[in-house]
Write a structure and sequence with these properties.
alpha+beta; 2 domains; 5-stranded antiparallel β-sheet; 3 helices; 12 strands
């Protein structure tokens, strides 16, 4: 599970600051004091998620409060509303990456034109989170999940490790080019510095 620090607007109209886990769950800052390690919090959320026996689509809008009875420490946890309007990364608020966050870019080409000669990214390059990339096993699945215009199998996977405080926009891939979308998308607003991109790894075409 990945995480970001940010602010969310609840369906009560109140704005709270806290940690967003895996683009899906939100824990208010005041609930973090009882945790000696972030891994402890993540395990609590995993327990809670298993107890619900379902998963929510990653969405970007108003939040609904959900019961958290199975958590020993967290009294309030929120999950993104299944009825909220999905929003793409384009036009989303610019946020900053945290230390050690990892992203992936699926491409049809080993010499991706969005990757510079010095292994950085050019501005406004699209990618996805490492967590969301786990949903993709083939290049054809990448085309569908990220609504890629190029129909050549996107089975080349670049790994992106930007420095802390890299500017990006994050959202959900909207249907386009005859593809359903639904994956997480990020836009590196300013690109990334040299030596932040490695790969590509090759996955099956289909």
């Amino acid at each position: 599970m990945g995480y970001q620090v940010g602010e969310v607007r609840l369906n009560t109209g109140k704005t709270e600051r806290g940690i967003i886990l895996n683009g899906t769950y939100f824990v208010p800052t005041e609930e973090l004091a009882g945790f000696s390690a972030f891994s402890q919090l993540m395990e609590e959320v995993r327990v809670w998620n298993r107890a619900r026996k379902s998963s929510l689509a990653i969405e970007n809008a108003t939040l609904d409060t959900r019961p958290a009875a199975s958590l020993r420490h967290v009294k309030r946890i929120y999950s993104f509303s299944e009825n909220a309007k999905q929003a793409s990364a384009k036009g989303a608020e610019v946020t900053l990456t945290l230390r050690d966050e990892i992203f992936k870019r699926f491409s049809a080409y080993e010499n991706d034109f969005r990757v510079t000669d010095k292994w950085g990214l050019v501005p406004n390059t699209y990618a996805t989170t490492a967590e969301d990339a786990l949903n993709v096993k083939t290049g054809m699945e990448a085309i569908a999940r990220y609504a890629l215009e190029n129909k050549k199998s996107a089975n080349k996977v670049f790994t992106i490790e930007p420095p802390e405080n890299t500017r990006l926009q994050k959202g959900v891939v909207e249907p386009a080019h005859g593809e359903p979308g639904g994956g997480v998308e990020v836009i590196f607003v300013d690109g990334t510095p040299d030596n932040t991109v490695t790969g590509p790894d090759i996955i099956p075409e289909k």
